[in-house]
Amino acid sequence: MLVGILPCLILKSIILKSYEDRAVDVQTAQIQNQCTILCDQLAAMGYPGKKAAEAMLPELEQLSSIYNGRVMLIDSQFQIVEDTYDLDEEKTIVSEDVIQCFEGEGTKIYDAKSGYIEVTSPIFAADKESVTGVMLVSVSTTPILDSIEVLDAKAWIAEGIIILTVAVLAIILGAVMVRPFARITSSIEAVNEGYDDNYLHENTYTETRLISEAFNKMLGRLKILDDSRQEFVANVSHELKTPITSMKVLADSLLAQENVPVELYQEFMQDLSEEIEREDKIINDLLSLVKMDKTAASLQVKQENINDLLEKILKRLQPIAAARNIEVVFESFRPVNAEVDGVKLSLAITNLVENAVKYNIDGGWVHVSLNADHKFFYIEVADSGIGIPEESKEHIFERFYRVDKSHSREIGGTGLGLAIARNAVVMHRGAIKVYSQLGEGTTFTVRIPLNYIA
């Protein structure tokens, strides 16, 4: 409605103003022409002089009558010689326009506020060089203003019709134009009933097409998250059920036998203890992952010496590496202090180093390095282990994903370590990447800001 109405209002103002200016210019030009003719006649009749002025009085009154104005003749002494209104004869008039006209230049003034046009025209002597008098004409612009009022009234009538038409069209077109958005709203509300492939296709406008594409992408992401959640629940159930099933089988085997030898009894109890330990590790990893899934507000950030932190982690894991004759080397390029949650970062690095040891070859090596620049610090964990296949790299940070399930269960892996590590790094506004060749080892690089930004 604004797009239709505002241009009409602006156009009306422009047209009326243009008409007023044009009408004033035309009337001013006509008056100037008449003044020039009369001034030439006065000069030819020997003005200044009372006789010449009286002889021209009928023409002056005719000019005054035609334009509903006032005509005055002024001599070189600034005295009014003739006045068609008979009000100011023999009086003196001194004004800027009259003085300028005596210098040989006619003037014209339009006073819109008072509603009059004033024109001065010089009366030249016979030699055409000196000015012997001035003709001053004042004309009312009431007829022009009356015409403008009539036009303004008609313009308002036309504008009223246009506004009404625009309003009706705006309502109708508005209702038609928002229908695609109403359909989009209905489709979005229908998501409560469940997901569907290619759910939204509204291509009426470019905007609705873009909204549809964005919505479908979001819906696809939600479906992936929902599938991931269901898969996670299924994996958790499976991982927790496996040790319980093993323990039940062992317990049932003991109960089914009479007079079980002590050696067999101890062997079964050892197996039960290992399954319980495995169950406990899965539960602890799940609890750690749940804590990592909470918002970053749960981080207990403070200044930590990263060098000391890494040395403590490697010292704690040294016995595991020594049991397989794996050499663990720590290389620090400079002292690093950063704002981190020491517990969560330790958990992430511990998982990376522990994986580097567990999935290594006997007699291999693990190299941990620490470096920093003005903005980030970098931790690199490299090993000489079995490596990761190319097709598995994009999945290794998923919960319960295992590259080699049989090997992972053999060494006690739960498939949650790298998911925990990634969550901890992301909570610190950092990034983690993996580089690996099958059979040639793996390298994890971690980048974390020195100053934590909430």
UniProtKB/TrEMBL annotation:
CDD domains: HATPase, HisKA. It is found in: Membrane. It catalyses: ATP + protein L-histidine = ADP + protein N-phospho-L-histidine. The chain crosses the membrane at residues 156-178. Residues 235-452 form the Histidine kinase domain. Its EC number is 2.7.13.3. Signal peptide: none annotated. Keywords: Coiled coil, Kinase, Membrane, Phosphoprotein, Transferase, Transmembrane, Transmembrane helix, Two-component regulatory system. Its main location: membrane. The keyword Transmembrane helix applies. InterPro entries: BphY/WalK/GraS-like, HATPase_C_sf, HATPase_dom, His_kinase_dom, HisK_dim/P_dom, HisK_dim/P_sf, Sig_transdc_His_kin-like_C. It is an enzyme of class 2 (transferase). The keyword Coiled coil applies. Residues 269-312 form a coiled coil. Pfam families: HATPase_c (PF02518), HisKA (PF00512). This is histidine kinase.
